[in-house]
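Notebook B, p. 112. Complex prediction, attempt 2.
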Amino acid sequence: MRASRRASLRFTVIFFSLLLLVVPGVARADVLDAAARQLAARISAALPPREAVVLDLRNLSSLAAVDVAAVRRALEAGLEAHGVPLAAGSATHVEVRVTFSENLEGYLWVAEIPRGATPAVVMVSLPHSAVALAAQAEPALVLQRELVWGQERQILDLALLDAGAAKQRMAVLEPGQLSLYEWRNSGWGPRQMFPMAAGRPWPRDLRGKLYRQRLGPSDSLLVFLPGIECRLPLEGNAPLADLACGPGDTDSLGFPVFRGEEVAGGARLAPTGNFFGPEVRSGSWRGSMGPFFSVSVLPEGSGGALLISAGVDGLAHIYDQASRAVATVPGWGSDVSSIKTNCGSGWQVLATRPGDWTQPDAIRAYEIRDGVAVGAAPALEFSGPVMALGPLGEGAALAVARNLQTGRYEAYKISVFCGR
Amino acid sequence: MRRTRFPFFAAASFLAVALPSVAATHPHYGGSLRVEMRERVASLDPRRMTADAPGAAAAEPLASLVYERLVSVGGDARPQPVLALAWQHDAEFKRWQFRLRPGVKFHEASPLTAMAISAAWQDFFGSERRIRAAGEWLEIESDIPMPGLLEELSRGRYFVFHVAADGSLSGTGPFRVAAWQPGVRLVVAANEDYWAGRPFLDAVEIDMGRARREQLVDLELGKGDLVELAPEQVRRATQSGARASASAPVELLALEFNRDRPAARDARLREALALSIDRTSIVNVLLHRQGEAAGCLLPQWLSGYAFLFATSSNLARARALRAELSAALPLVLVYDAADAEARVVAERVAVNAREVGIAAQVSAQAASAAGTHDARLVRVHLVPSEPRAALAALAAALGLADALPPGERPEASGPEQLYAAERAIVEGFRVIPLAYLPETYGLGPRVRNWTAPRWGGWRLEDVWLETSSPASVGEKP
């Protein structure tokens, strides 16, 4: 009996999931429409033949008002399709109360149909997993995001391995695993998995980085994790060789430090921690700075580069090439990444905002003018904390956020547009 | 030179010094979290954690710091892998196999193996169940189907532990026991080799037996970081700058009738009492809006249909029902003597009852006492599971399993059948639901990354402490 209930639930999930994910062109509105028509069928079956109906709708769920209006239209259309006339206010009619409710598993739409002393109750459930996220509004802002990939497991970094519009391969770095995907018709499918073992448990706030290294004919994907560096040769689209991992080059200072998309230096990750420092290398310069969660490099006109770090003290610090702290910026989060654009001065810094893992986050773009960070774009909001920020390639950045509603990790391509 | 090129540097630096340390997204390591609780937990030994053991519910969050389970139940009520990475069962649910997470070690450094769990759990299973190690797999077998085994293993005493030669127990959890005074104080230290990564905290210090009033004072004075809050304390705590964090409403406050007493046998009397109760006042006034009125057993967030059950009083109908009854002895309503909220709610129920002509006496009773009461005010915590299993567990806890219609056990049904089953229980009036309450905690200003689990309890391995000394934080992994 339990198995039959599970089978029923599974059928519901599969039905709506297939409707949403498999049938080309089916959108969230179509899923809601299908559920509304299913409810209409249930209501009509519970009504006496040709009984006129007035619907009394109320919404106790997280459905947006616009969705409720659309569902109402679909419900009315569904009832009429089943031969149930919708009564005008003055006509003899049955008043059916429909409540858009919600429970742990999804939306629950409940219709109460007057019938003697006790109303008949019919329900239609619609799993959360079957309902797509609301269409992302086109921001009239400078920063835009595009969902690249989402999954249950933590995403440390993500790299698109083929330039231009030809999506072919994607690498996703997870704790203990590098996963390669390839584009198949309309979606990413798994191609190869490379487990990576550490000598000891990974740190809780694990940091990891991917970098596509092209040296002459040699083309590799480099993987940086605490105490480990790995290299995966990339030879066209041929089957990939094994991932070669080692303890890393101590002199290289471990994790890459980026200026836009290019590696400008390196920084050492604390052995079992989640922060870097104090040694940092940028170009030929090598110096020390306070411990930091992330660092990025900006060209500073002809006078050398600026290093911008998000310190463990909760402040962002701007250093010049002589390792001098030239400015301190409060109010930023733990992740910064420089990005080269065609807007403004040509270079901006993307920064998260303060908060912790329980709070929604946002990314803002800043320009550094005379040591002062000036906001260059309104905040781009996320439904959860941004866990990683860095270059993605092709003039875009990558932000990995954890969706607090679903618990999934979502990797976004962040683009800066000179919109206004 | 450089400073002249950056004229705003001095001002920016001053601003940075003047501002308090700003929380960053990435956590800081270090520090000791100070926790206070009212209950006194006498043992952390999973072998003594039977469901009816005194303090069993309070022991759960403490034990969870040290021990882990094969599976847990997530906020969405789905089983989540913990020490078991994967599992499978046969078609009849009589044989389950669990593949263990590799590389996990007990605190005393021995590896987690199927053999170790099998040895530890031998006494947990009666003759109808068998547990054994089969290579890397742990097998649990029974002659009776076990469709709910994952939910069973996700609660109660099914913690994974290892007994050393000297009889001491160790777990695999994010913390290990550093100091233990039963019923008084527990100190746990970070497990440096925790498989999911060392916790950010260095230690957690838990003081037991602290009255709610003392806990609130300690929170306000900065002596406590995490304390329990009674409903009437929430406003004061937030006004004093602390944060209040509540779970979903997970605890049912209800009147449970004693079927052995003649006064409670007449369903009309029970219905009249149910219709007399002003739940809105109970929630809004007595419980300071820290909960929801309950007209049924499952809360709205879990079932989605609780709104179909009335929570308002119907005095006319209650009086009519009472009029059908002959004069009766006063109903004796009892509550847990240690539960201050239960006392005021019980007194309000008695006042409501008298308004419709039902005499009621209220008295305190030790939780374990089996007295000569007609009804008892009880608190029942939801079992973390999907709605059907949660209703079945609630019904069982309230002695109502037999009230479910034959063949319509809730675990076998969809939402409509579940609703019908719950309505049948509620309309039997053997239990009168009153309110749903959340678990509420007060958090000090330095606590970060606290997430209130939907089902209540703690999750401290991700918590970190904001310190005023960032330089020292940076040195400590």
